[in-house]
Automatic annotation (TrEMBL), chains A, B:
<dbReference type="InterPro" id="IPR002813">
    <property type="entry name" value="Arg_biosynth_ArgJ"/>
</dbReference>
<keyword id="KW-0055">Arginine biosynthesis</keyword>
<keyword id="KW-0028">Amino-acid biosynthesis</keyword>
<dbReference type="InterPro" id="IPR042195">
    <property type="entry name" value="ArgJ_beta_C"/>
</dbReference>
<feature type="binding site">
    <location>
        <position position="405"/>
    </location>
    <ligand>
        <name>substrate</name>
    </ligand>
</feature>
<comment type="similarity">
    <text>Belongs to the ArgJ family.</text>
</comment>
<dbReference type="InterPro" id="IPR016117">
    <property type="entry name" value="ArgJ-like_dom_sf"/>
</dbReference>
<keyword id="KW-0511">Multifunctional enzyme</keyword>
<feature type="binding site">
    <location>
        <position position="152"/>
    </location>
    <ligand>
        <name>substrate</name>
    </ligand>
</feature>
<feature type="binding site">
    <location>
        <position position="189"/>
    </location>
    <ligand>
        <name>substrate</name>
    </ligand>
</feature>
<feature type="binding site">
    <location>
        <position position="276"/>
    </location>
    <ligand>
        <name>substrate</name>
    </ligand>
</feature>
<keyword id="KW-0963">Cytoplasm</keyword>
<comment type="subunit">
    <text>Heterotetramer of two alpha and two beta chains.</text>
</comment>
<feature type="binding site">
    <location>
        <position position="178"/>
    </location>
    <ligand>
        <name>substrate</name>
    </ligand>
</feature>
<feature type="site" description="Involved in the stabilization of negative charge on the oxyanion by the formation of the oxyanion hole">
    <location>
        <position position="115"/>
    </location>
</feature>
<comment type="function">
    <text>Catalyzes two activities which are involved in the cyclic version of arginine biosynthesis: the synthesis of N-acetylglutamate from glutamate and acetyl-CoA as the acetyl donor, and of ornithine by transacetylation between N(2)-acetylornithine and glutamate.</text>
</comment>
<keyword id="KW-0012">Acyltransferase</keyword>
């Protein structure tokens, strides 16, 4: 069902960053469900984490440990280790300690990540049993296998890669992500891992991560349900033969920032394209806002409206539902007579009512497309925001009604 | 599909309040789609109206006219006359003027109400053509017919009635409502009409309406989509042989307030029971909040979560989704270790994790019921709020994908 999402593009290896995949049989025997990533010594690591107050045990641990030297990222699917209290925290610590022991590093150098069903005890022994195989599998050429290994209800693996030249040296940025439901990232996505071989100090890397995530992962929504397990990590191995990148690095900093942003955007949008039951990829663009928050309020009111999402599924240009959502978004003193709404390039509503030039045929032609842009001009100021989302289909209900069966 | 909603109860006539039904053939020939209500001269009228900024033309007009003497309420289904701009306002004025002319009252004494598809021009001639038949049909005994006449995607008519005695005089409060989708009333419901034969001054009636609506209509949600056309009206004809009711009337005031509240609650909950595609009637109770707003934020996060709603549809006690919704509700400094969550009487989560005593069998037994209470104890203070909602089923998607076909 994925919309405009093909096979993985070429994912360039990142020198100093290796990935290993193994099967712990957490949900189904034989399924690849454990991914270990190794960062070369001296790597910088930055992360953004869910703002959900019920954040999962691995999130709590990773948030603490990301500030120290990080050598390994340990991901399991099939179990989120969320809503598991003190026992869950101990379980996450145990899997990290085991990996640290096998790898000969301090336990604090291992960051855990989990995704899957909430509230079940983490099967620690199963995961521990798969760690050696994952370590044996470590290779810089395993990005595609890792992208598959972190999938849950995803139908396709998600990844993106960019390279640029600086002073004759090639710099690589490669990333993968997973997620298809419980998606409204809040400072991060479900799970994302992006690595570069540039040398970047932790503070600068953190800014790059925040900037990259803010306009990509933090602007996608499938069902408005912010996950307990959202994490996105950015790793800089420093293996490229270039000076350390800082905000004062000029062209190198700008090129790296752009590459990180493009990888973030591509893997974030891939999550929406593969949204549970998605048949449409929808861009909601809000312009002319008095401030960014009111643009976001309007955008999310539209992007979360079950009535708009079912109309999108039906390819029905029921634009009245868009007006209704804009009107209930809570923007203070909203003057509807200044508002224009476009479906693609078709003006469907102007001055608060149906556009005089609009015909149902024009709306239907836009709605029949797989990729649709809804543009709302508020006429209040100069601010804009863009959000990406999906429709709401029978398949979404089916997937989520049957998720645990 | 309606949950726990049977045939209409006995709807006692309200002396001084008559209802007439006719067919204008707005959406389908022969369908009863025009309802006229006449209030006896001297009646007081109070109303609450949608806070959607894109409110419909009839809402704009009724909000203005409710402050003057009101004699007629004119309702049509099949067309919401919303998102129709200046032309829509003129159309609403024309239908009112025609009714006023036929009835021999000033145009300002007629309040219009519309419900149905948004953004289509109101078929003024069709409605005008049905007005004389509706006037000819006026009777105090037509509550049930009117409850049917105002239906759109409703599967059953909705009404409630209460009587009480005061000083040997019987006082009646009877009400009807409609609505099944685009339901998250904000100061009102889709459409509700409640009448009493008590004598009540407009200012007191307004307070009764606000109090009644606030804990009933304003606490139900089906899909979070606040309508452009929500209105709820309370009419007091003053025909009961009793003194005028004021806040100082003691027992009479309290009895009337209670009766109005009970009628509001019964017809508001009836809207949820008949929610589009509903297979469950769900009560979300949030206790122990530090203030009412945080209780509402948590309650609506749960009530609007597509993941919780699909789990309810599947009768799956996937309580991790409830924790995740509570955690993302935006309550500042939420201490998850103080939170308990109950499904019915079963404690599913305590201290932020799965309750040690919880078994999946217990959760499944509650989930198998048609009426389910989710209770969240925040452990932060003394405030409570309750919200009523439905599940999200295949049928909801089907109804809303095919709404205009």
């Amino acid at each position: 069902m994925a919309v405009g999402l093909g096979p993985l593009p070429t994912l360039h290896p990142v020198p100093g960053f290796e990935l290993g995949i193994a099967s712990a049989g957490i949900k189904r025997p034989g399924r690849k469900d454990v991914v270990v990533m190794r960062c070369a010594e001296g790597s910088s690591v930055a992360g953004v984490f869910t703002l959900n107050a019920f954040c999962a045990a691995p999130v709590i641990l990773s948030k603490q440990r990301v500030h120290g030297p990080v050598r390994y990222l340990l991901t399991n699917t099939g179990n989120a280790n969320a809503g598991t209290g003190a026992l869950g925290l101990a379980a996450a610590e145990r899997t990290c300690a085991k990996l640290a022991e096998l790898a000969g590093v301090p336990a604090e150098a291992v960051l855990p990540f989990s995704t899957g069903v909430i509230g079940e005890p983490l099967p620690v022994e199963k995961i521990e049993g798969a760690l050696q195989a994952a370590l044996d599998d470590l290779s810089e050429n395993n990005w595609a296998e890792a992208a598959t290994g972190i999938m849950t209800t995803d139908t396709l693996p998600k990844g993106a890669s960019r390279q640029f030249q600086h002073d004759g040296v090639t710099v690589t940025v490669t990333g993968i992500s997973k997620g298809a439901g419980m998606i409204r990232p809040n400072m991060a996505t479900m799970l994302g891992y992006i690595a570069t071989d540039a040398k970047v100090a932790p503070a600068v890397l953190k800014d790059l991560m925040l900037d990259g995530a803010n306009k990509s992962f933090n602007r996608i929504t499938i069902d408005g349900d912010t996950s307990t397990n959202d994490c996105c990590m950015l790793i800089a191995t420093g293996q490229a033969d270039l000076p350390e990148v800082t905000q004062a690095s000029g062209a190198l900093f700008e090129a790296l920032k752009q590459a990180v942003f493009e990888v973030c955007m591509e893997v974030a949008q891939a999550i929406v394209r593969d949204g549970e039951g998605a048949t449409k990829f929808v861009t909601v663009q809000v312009n002319g806002g008095g401030n960014h928050q009111e643009c976001l309020d309007v955008g999310y009111a539209v992007a979360h409206s079950p009535l708009i999402k079912t109309a999108l599924f039906a390819s029905d240009p029921n634009w009245g539902r868009i007006l209704a959502a804009v009107g209930r978004a809570g923007v203070p003193q909203l003057d509807v007579s200044l508002i224009d709404v476009y479906l693609g390039d078709v003006c469907i509503a102007s001055q608060g009512g149906r556009s005089p030039s609009y015909t149902e045929e024009q709306g239907s032609a836009v709605m029949a497309q797989e990729e649709i842009t809804i543009r709302i001009e508020l006429g209040r100021g100069q601010c804009s925001e863009t959000i990406w989302t999906t429709d709401l289909s029978h398949e979404y209900v089916k997937i989520n009604a049957e998720y645990r069966t």
